[in-house]
Design brief:
The structure is a single chain. With 270 residues, the chain is of the alpha+beta class. The chain folds into 2 domains: 93 residues, Orthogonal Bundle (434 Repressor (Amino-terminal Domain)); 151 residues, no CATH class. Helices cover 46% and strands 17% of the residues. The protein has 8 helices and 10 strands. The strands form 2 sheets. Strands 2, 3, 4, 6, 9 and 10 form a 6-stranded antiparallel sheet that branches. A hairpin with a 2-residue loop joins strand 7 and strand 8. Helix 2 packs across helix 4 and helix 5 runs antiparallel to helix 6. The longest helix is centred in the middle third of the chain and has 53 residues. The N terminus is likely disordered.
Length: 270
């Protein structure tokens, strides 16, 4: 009576090698990619799929390869291990048991194929983090410096509007400068006319007088847009800047730079 071959035995048990191969193909993974992921030699994976047990290392190692391969492919490792045990030839088991006293041979799992794998250097990662932290620190320094630089002119204008405007008005009335100039803008009495556009969104008291003494707008004004013209500089008084916007020669005047408690009193020239 002849003894069934190893391939016949494996087919009787369901051919675990074919199951592994089909699962790998379904996962669309090449044998090289699987070997790189599992750190198992390509020839050992091929031997498992082809059930070439003579090309595999000792049964314990080969069985472990089969289990790890099954887990990687999403198969039931217990069923694969059972099929492997049933298909493994008895003569190879005897040879393996007789060679247990010999020194262990490298099974190939230490020869990792890292050609397609990315390794991260801890020092490189720390260096990248350091560069990012430094960049953030420098960005904040530049932003703060720019913010402080932009705030300086605003504070200067506020100081002038709060204190020196009143002094300029007093000087204008006592020193003979008159309507030709002020503490903020020294105008020319012979200057050409300038255009003003006053937009009132809600009732507000607005008084505007030009350099010649003409009253261009006085007292309470209703909502609307008013086009005015006269000789600069203009003396402007507004009781609530939230309800008024002003343009001089089609350029918007920032009323909040002249206001204190929403009230503004200043002279304006191009």
């Amino acid at each position: 009576m002849t003894t069934p071959s190893s391939n016949t035995q494996s087919n009787a048990q369901g051919s675990f090698g074919a199951t592994l191969q089909q699962a790998r193909k379904n996962k669309k993974v090449s044998i090289d990619e699987a070997a790189a992921e599992l750190f198992i030699l390509k020839r050992h994976l091929q031997a498992l799929e082809n059930e070439n047990f003579s090309d595999l290392p000792q049964p314990a190692f080969a069985r472990g390869f089969a289990i790890n391969y099954a887990k990687y492919l999403g198969l039931d490792p217990i069923k694969i291990a059972s099929s492997f045990d049933a298909a493994y030839p008895n003569e190879l088991k005897v040879q393996a048991s007789n060679s247990t006293d010999t020194p262990l041979r490298p099974m190939g799992t230490l020869q990792r194929d890292t050609h397609n794998r990315i390794r991260f250097n801890p020092l490189l990662i720390l260096a990248v983090i350091g560069v990012i932290v430094l960049a953030v620190f420098l960005f904040r320094m530049v932003s703060n410096a720019s913010k402080e630089h932009n705030e300086e002119p605003v504070s200067t204008v506020e100081d002038i509007s709060a204190s020196e405007q009143a002094q300029g008005a007093a000087i204008s009335n006592t020193s003979g400068i008159g309507s030709s100039g002020s503490a903020l803008n020294l105008g020319d009495a012979n200057a050409s006319e300038a255009a003003l556009v006053v937009t009132v969104t809600d009732t507000a008291n607005v008084t505007i007088t030009d350099a010649t003494g003409n009253d261009l707008m006085t007292d309470a004004q209703t909502s609307g847009s008013y086009n005015l013209s006269g000789t600069p500089p203009f003396n402007v008084q507004i009781d609530n800047i939230d309800n008024v916007s002003l343009m001089l020669n089609q350029e918007t005047v920032a009323l909040d730079t002249y206001a204190t408690d929403k009230k503004a009193s200043f002279e304006l020239a191009p």
